[in-house]
Amino acid sequence: MGIKRKRIVVKVGTSTLTNEMGKSNLRTLDHLARVLSDIQNMGHEVLLVSSGAIAVGANKMHLPEKPSQMRMKQAAAAVGQCENMFLYDKFFGEYDKTVAQILLNAEDIEQEVKRENLANTFFALLEQGIIPIVNENDSVSYTEIESEEKLFGDNDMLSAVVSVLCQADLLVILSDIEGFYDADPRLFRNARLISRIEEITKETYDLAGGAGSRRGTGGMQTKLKAAELATANGIDTIVTNGAHPESLYDIMDEKKVGTLFVARGK
Ligand SMILES: Nc1ncnc2c1ncn2[C@@H]1O[C@H](COP(=O)(O)OP(=O)(O)O)[C@@H](O)[C@H]1O
Ligand SMILES: N[C@@H](CCC(=O)OP(=O)(O)O)C(=O)O
């Protein structure tokens, strides 16, 4: 029997990668590296879209909080990206895996020639059993951090763009919450998890609020946009909690986890 959902893209947000102190959450990073390595050993192809550069960099630079000035955000991203890749290289290395860093701007996707080159790079890496780790190129492209006209908006959207580009079978967005609720559970205690969404409509967006912590960006609004793009391109999308990366095993076994946004045309 062939492997279902062979190629998966996993996106992990700042709120999962860092702790309350703004420092790297080493336990989660290690768990994530172990589970993704294991899933690759089971015959799947894995791509990781990882946020956290700005928050981790700000912490390493001893800034009192996440910077608001653009130049400081870009500086923090340069420091934090380096730290994150160091940690990923170390943790994935423990499980005998090689990782590669890909940093993207919107132009890299918009221009056809660049897009093709980029897809070829991803395919070459996957063919070699390497795990690509993707982030926005924040230190170069301020538009991705701030502009209204940004294509990615944030890493949720970037993960959907990468999923489409790589013709992934599944996108998993790991956040600091179990999935998509009928209201933001941080504000409404009685909010209920929605386990399956067949179609994302205006009413769905009405249920989604912004970021839940000072570390996160975009909240459920951007996750819905990402799910909309991915599902429109035939890619199932799951939003679930990244605190327990082991749930990825259940996802690969097609068990019910978090919220499934069903691919269109299925
Ligand atoms: N309808 C909703 N269901 C679940 N979470 C929601 C909803 N609306 C807003 N949120 C908020 O979205 C947050 C997750 O997004 P975000 O803070 O950007 O994290 P990440 O770093 O994972 O992208 C949750 O902690 C929650 O407070
Ligand atoms: N590219 C930025 C992350 C932006 C972003 O989308 O953050 P998040 O909502 O935590 O996924 C960084 O690495 O800090």
From TrEMBL:
PROSITE patterns: GLUTAMATE_5_KINASE. Residues 6-241 form the Aspartate/glutamate/uridylate kinase domain. Catalyzes the transfer of a phosphate group to glutamate to form L-glutamate 5-phosphate. The gene is proB. Belongs to the glutamate 5-kinase family. GO terms for cellular component: cytosol. Its EC number is 2.7.2.11. It is found in: Cytoplasm. This is Glutamate 5-kinase.
